[in-house]
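Residues pack. One example:


***
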Amino acid sequence: MVAAGILIEHGRVLLTQRKKGAHLEGAWEFPGGKVEPSEDPRDALVRELREEVGIEAAVGDVVEVTFHRYPAKAVLLLFYRVERRAGSPEPAALDVADVRWAAHEDLREDEFPPADIVVLSKVRALVADRAG
């Protein structure tokens, strides 16, 4: 199980890039990571955001739940809305290759892992709504 965060600020959504040597290295995705056994997915997301990009976040509503089967594994993904807590620093690439903020028109399917494609249309709409 994987928990991922949809963090939208100033009409842009936060993306992280997978590190070299990782499954689907170089792909852009929504920040988050694996939920440990007996860990609440929301707690896992807060932990992963702290580890990967150095922010403190409040986890909100579920945006999407999806299941994807890769050739060698299957994954259940939980996508949540998140907000950066007051006083939290600007996101930085701590345990990812890179970070970037993307406008809705910059969310290209060919840059994302196949498991993330199903949520892109919802995220585009959320980002566009926050942009204007």
